[in-house]
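Lecture 7 notes. Example A: sequence first, then its structure tokens.
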Amino acid sequence: MKKNVWLPVAGFPELHIGQYIVPNFVSNAVAIEISPREFIVISPGAPLLAAWHEQFPQATQLHIVFPNGYHHMGVSAWVEDFPDAKLYASAVAIEQLKQKGFRQTHIKDIDRNPMPLPKGYYLRFPPGHRAG
């Protein structure tokens, strides 16, 4: 898979996958289009930000999801470019992020403050997942 670009998922025009390199491994991000201007972005990496601006210049409202307390390294860069982005994580992940010194303090508990999902989409954390 090509790195640092967003690729469409065949048969799902609202869904895009991005792959990027962080120290020592490859990570994945997912973008779900709610509307041409509004997206959910799960685990965005800083290396995907330039491609985002090229591929989705109309996207102005973002909902950024931390799938767990370990997927935080690129979020600060995204928040710099999208200061009005809404941040979401599980209660367990929020505590982990605070312990790691993550500076963004306005993270919403995803269980208490669900984000808008397109029809037919659901967010589930399987039992045993690091999100809690």
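Example B, a different protein, same format:
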Amino acid sequence: MSQAFLGANPGTVVTDALAPTLMEAETVNGETTTGAWVEVGFPGDCVVVLELGSMAAAASLDVEIQGSDDGDDVSPEGLVSFGHFDTVGGSDDNEVRILDIQCYKRYVRAVATESGAADAVVSKITLAPPQFRMGNERTA
């Protein structure tokens, strides 16, 4: 008799399916890409998960997480920076990175800036409460 396994396969990034998505499937090349504002339902300690895709050899990507009181795209009220991920380079293909933040604003967004004039792929950036922290490594 065979058994079914419903867990994640080895090498799969485990995430919260209901976590707000700050940015998804973006290729950034010599420009700044700004995600939409997302309303946060759990202020306090939060975890931002950055999943990278393929990176060109000359890519240099900076990802900043911002907060605001009103989520206005033109002139957000009370705009703050919650932090930056370490700069992503061409050798960082398909990595997963974690950023712990103190989320005290109602709205959050991600801003990705590529300065190497090469393709940098952001697979997904999500926000979750700290109990969903999974570390910065893929499984097996």
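Note on Example B: The chain is about 0% helix and 45% strand. Residues 91 and 102 are 29 Å apart (CA to CA).
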